[in-house]
Amino acid sequence: MNIPERHLGKGRPREFCVDQALTAALGVFWTKGYEGSSLSDLTEAMGITRPSLYAAFGNKEELFRKALDLYEREKLAYVSEALAAPTSRGVVERLLTGALENLGGSECEPRGCLRVITSMTCGAEAASVREDLHARRASSQAALVARMAKAVADGDFPAGTDPESITNYLLAILQGLSVQANSGASHEQLEDVVRTSLAVWPGR
Using an 8 Å Cβ cutoff, are 48 and 40 in contact? Predict the structure, then answer.
């Protein structure tokens, strides 16, 4: 919704667009990580006060989860399309090229995957956030294992290929791309990783 919310107080509309504020919060979390993003960073980027943040989004943890939901809807939409590809190579090609497009990012967006970056930087104080990220990752991994199991059954892979092992290999490539992008690797270097990964992929 791109209109002001009207539940802040009696008859008093919020003086900001919730969607725009959430997008701004996503940018802060994506750049600084969960623990590195202070409430001051968030409210300044969102253009709102702390009371407004609490009223609209709950606490910082709830705001992060909403921002992560937005990230997954907008930036990871290619994943479901990739899983629908007819062969394992098609799945991998769409996953890697989709990730590459995200990691290159626009000039106004950070580089790297928000989920990977946050998982790597969450400490003990953000245990519930880390657990949520792990649960999301486990769900994504289960879907990919199921797709690779179908590919094995379809004869895409050499005999004896284990769906879970090949999935772990693919996830290691995807996570490695994110880490390299966040560390400053050029788009050309990331493209080389994608090309090499596709060249050695054992499935058809």
Answer: no
CA pair distance 38, 13, nearest whole angstrom: 26
| Local confidence pLDDT in tens for the 204 residues of the chain | 343 444 444 444 456 799 999 999 999 998 888 988 999 999 999 999 999 999 999 999 999 999 999 999 988 999 999 999 999 999 999 999 999 988 865 555 667 788 887 877 676 667 888 889 889 999 999 999 999 999 999 999 999 999 999 999 999 999 999 889 888 888 899 999 999 999 999 998
SS3 96: helix
DSSP class of 188 = H
- Please tell me the distance from the alpha carbon of residue 129 to that of residue 100, in angstroms, as a whole number: 26
For residue 15, the one-letter residue type is E
Distances in Å between the Cα of 91 and the Cα atoms of 25, 152, 180 are 31, 13, 22
Q: Are 166 and 157 in contact (CB under 8 A)?
A: yes
Per-residue three-class SS string for 43-65: HHHHCCCHHHHHHHHCCHHHHHH
